[in-house]
Amino acid sequence: MRLNKKTDAAIQGVVEKYGDLLYDVCHSVLWSHSNAQVAFREIIKTIKATPANERFEKYQRAWILRISYEVLSKYSSKYARTQTPAERMMLDATKDLNLRIAQFDSFFHRLTMDEQYILLLRDKHGISDQELGAIMNLPEGSVKLRREQALRTLEDWIWQ
Amino acid sequence: MECFGWQNLTSDFLDQKLKADLQKKVDAHVQKCDQCGKRVQHLRLLLNTIHRQPKHPLPIPMRKSPLSASLPRLEMLGRSRWERLPWFIRTGLEGAGIAVLVLAAVALVPTLRDIYERSQERKLDDLILAEAMIPRDLDSSEPIAPLIRGGSTGTSKDSEEGFINEFPSGDTLAEEEAKHASEDPNLRVGNSQIWRFNLKTDSPKELRRKVIELLIENEIAQSTPGFGGVEAPGGIQFDILIPKEKVLDLKEGLGRVSQPPRPSLGKAAPLREPFTWYKSQSRRRIPRGEARVVIWLSQI
């Protein structure tokens, strides 16, 4: 496809506006700097490949995050960093509460990709339940419920 | 408001989005209930921790040219090559592997059993050979002829006399003895005769050694077929051709080596004499100057 100046400008605009958000989400889910860059490139390519008349202008952020959700769903099953059984055992064997809280990142990455995505966008980046529901194609109640479940799971793991 | 009711409103409660009256009820419950109070503290701590997680900015090369910046290689962190395979391939391979293992095990069982049986037979043969090795004296280490197992005899294969159980039982044997004793008080060894000796023992193998010594004493060559004896169910048999003049000496020697009769115990029937013998005429021709001697060491 020939590079279109208008398309280039649009892509550059998206990168400027949402690049940090997208990259942070990719990095947090995949838990790897290099894999996050690859996933980010994939998201931008998908955005660029979308015909102009199908692109959302009004709800641009939700649309972009939806694309990122689909890409990350695909990538997390193959490329997300996982803990080895030894690492899990060591983590569970830690008795000091402060140490366990300090290793929050490790516990966080035990959650499913959906739960991580919800907590990241909802509590780290402040995106509303409604918007999250549109991104993940879920009712608002389901988003709240999944968020609660994820938090309770984290609580059980850390406070045993 | 109870614990279950509050838990259903956790998300809105933490975001303080509940209606005023509901908020009051939940606050009151949380203050009363220790467990729910602790839970609220934990969840707020978790939310703060998530909120304070560092944000990773987009790298500058990617920011400048998101589609043309050089990318690092994808890392398959924490996953082995096996785990990277699709699940249906992994499951198929694992299933095929298990099936192959089971089939291999089933196919190997007869082979392993054969190997085991052969090793056991070898051990048994070694044991028998070891028992047959008796040095005559300390100086000489000449081995005695090995004990053969099975149905082969020292003389012709298709002997008309048959094998084992050739001795007439009980009364018939006594009659034979009486007949020979009465007929010929001065025993002679005639032509084409078979002399049969039966020795009863509780250890045929031990007696076999003595018989072999006796044969050597009587200058019977060790290369004589059947010299080592043949092991059979019920005992050991010697079936050899020896010079006629040695037969009576051998008979005398066998009488000596045979065990003395055991005293009868209580109501048990008295045991027979351990040494019995008789002679008969062979239907087949035996070389001139030789007599066939069959010594049966029967297990008591």
Structure write-up:
The complex is a heterodimer of chains A (160) and B (300). Chain A is mainly α. In chain A, 77% of the residues lie in helices and 0% in strands. The longest helix of chain A is centred in the first third of the chain and has 26 residues, at 5-30. Chain A is globular and about 55 Å long. Chain B is α/β, with parallel strands linked by helices and 300 residues long. In chain B, strand 3 and strand 4 form a beta hairpin.
Please supply descriptive tags for the structure shown above.
heterodimer; A: 160 residues; mainly alpha; 9 helices; B: 300 residues; 6-stranded mixed beta sheet; 46% helix; rod-shaped
Distance between the termini of chain A: 54 Å
What is the general shape of chain B? Answer: rod-shaped
Number of distinct helices of chain A: 9
N-to-C terminal Cα separation of chain B, in Å? 96 Å
| Biggest beta-sheet profile of chain A | none
- Radius of gyration based on Cα positions of chain B: 48 Å
| Proportion in helices of chain A | over 70%
Approximately what portion of the residues of chain B adopt beta-strand conformation? 5-15%
What's the helical proportion of residues of chain B? Answer: 40-55%
Given helix and strand content, the structural type of chain B is alpha/beta
Instruction: Tell me the greatest interface.
Output: A-B, 50 and 33 residues
Structural class of chain A: mainly alpha
Query: Which spans of chain A of ≥5 residues are poorly predicted at pLDDT below 50?
Result: none
User: How many individual β-strands of chain A?
Assistant: 0
Residue ranges of chain B: pLDDT <50 for 5 or more in a row?
A: 136-142, 151-174
Shape of chain A: globular
Order of helices and strands of chain B: HHHHHHHEHEHEEHEE
DSSP strand content of chain A: under 5%
